[in-house]
């Protein structure tokens, strides 16, 4: 469990667990921090190979590898209490892939799925998006500068770039090669909430409606692709998650 999950604050009496998936190239610390803020919710932040304590492990090459590892680790504890999923960008795709397999194979379903900064994987906007993992390092850094969220001094430091660029490109390779068909009927019944930055590139958020028969909500917040790193936006997101998971716990009981 500790190899794959980072949990800063164990909360055996929590009303629910929030399982968080990193953005491309990201680690677990950003979300693990949330566990110290959300006093009624236990936060599990997923650690992928090729970074943090798993830096010496080879990167995963497919979404199936991520799904298999995470589900194998989490399955024994998922029935202990209600759980929700959160993912930003690449993490949104991973959250959906996990939810899809949990429902189809194991008949388990989150009480809420929170998706941020990404089009649905089957949407035309996503399918037609250019592949970034094939860019040269120079072109890739230019793209990163445009989307924001990474301090310019980091992008200008070749030694630091060498550390994070491989994991970022590896994750983008995974998500760019992840394909699934638009559901003919809703797979899930839980509520779905999409967050996005108002100044980010457009995403087809409405396409996520098709994954569930539950309530569908879109929350647009100020900022570009990494709007969720802003303290004010993070507070909005965490207050929203707390409100809906605490309400869902009442329904679950």
Account of the protein in words:
The protein is an alpha/beta fold and 253 residues long. The protein has one domain (5-252): Rossmann fold (3-Layer(aba) Sandwich), CATH 3.40.50. It is built from 9 helices and 7 strands, in the order E-E-H-H-E-H-E-H-E-H-H-H-H-E-E-H. The protein has helices at 29-32, 34-37, 63-78, 90-106, 124-127, 137-147, 152-155, 158-176, 231-252; strands at residues 5-6, 16-21, 41-46, 83-88, 112-116, 192-197, 216-221. Strands 1-3-2-4-5-6-7 form a 7-stranded mixed sheet, sandwiched between helices. Helix 4 (90-106) links the parallel strand 4 (83-88) and strand 5. It is globular. The two termini are 27 Å apart. The relative contact order is 0.16. This is S-acyl fatty acid synthase thioesterase, medium chain. One of its GO terms (molecular function) is fatty acyl-[ACP] hydrolase activity. It is an enzyme of class 3 (hydrolase).
List keywords for this structure.
253 residues, seven-stranded mixed beta sheet, Thioesterase, S-acyl fatty acid synthase thioesterase, medium chain, fatty acyl-[ACP] hydrolase activity, EC 3.1.2.14, lipid metabolism
Counting helices, strands and paired strands, the structural category is alpha/beta
CATH superfamily: Alpha/Beta hydrolase fold, catalytic domain
Number of domains: 1
Share of residues in helices: 25-40%
- The best one-word shape is globular
Number of distinct helices: 9
What Rg do the Cα atoms give?
17 Å
Largest sheet features: 7 strands, mixed
Pattern of helices and strands: EEHHEHEHEHHHHEEH
Number of strands: 7
Low confidence ranges: none
Strand content: 5-15%
End-to-end distance: 27 Å
Mean pLDDT: 93
EC number: 3.1.2.14
GO molecular function: fatty acyl-[ACP] hydrolase activity
Protein name: S-acyl fatty acid synthase thioesterase, medium chain
Catalytic activity: (9Z)-octadecenoyl-[ACP] + H2O = (9Z)-octadecenoate + holo-[ACP] + H(+)
